[in-house]
Amino acid sequence: MRHGKKINHLGRTASHRKAMLSNMATSLIQNKRIVTTVAKAKALRKYVEPIITKSKTDTTHSRRVVFSYLQDKESVNILFNEVSEKVADREGGYTRILKTGNRLGDNASMCVIELVDFNESLLKEAKPKRSRTRRGRKGISDQGDIAAAAATAAAAAAVAADKAPEAETASEPEASEAAVVSEAVEPRTEAESSDQANADEEE
Known about the structure:
The protein is mostly helical. The protein has helices spanning 14-31, 38-54, 60-70, 73-86, 120-125, 135-202; strands at residues 33-37, 95-102, 109-115.
């Protein structure tokens, strides 16, 4: 009976499973993301995240322990020199699983497993954190804004009221000048018309 045994054997023997996870971890560290099935990705996450945590302490003992799992010198160097610097501030959760649908042949659920700190597109889309403010301060600032807006509106109304009488007094002289001009023009036109009439009679 297998009561309480939660390990996923992935349909393989222990040696085959260990070799497969070691190769997948090496590929993930070198390429930063790989495509695999969801079951293998979940098993790989349990396998590779303790190794990444071990790489944060760069000692000879840590390198030997990591090498015993990966069995690849190049990936060990990449892990300690490149990956460990990126994940230094992260407490855990170094990998991300993104499901991509089902495979055509056997309809297995596929996914992409990647290192979180190496996906530049998702890092750029991350929204900046909002600064926390107290509700009291926000209310006071809003009231101050409303009072300031009311004061500016009152000042604008006062300025408009001051300019209105000036505009009326300025328009009155213009109207009187127009009347004088019209009166002066009318007699001249009548005189000219009478002179033209006399000239016609003489002819």
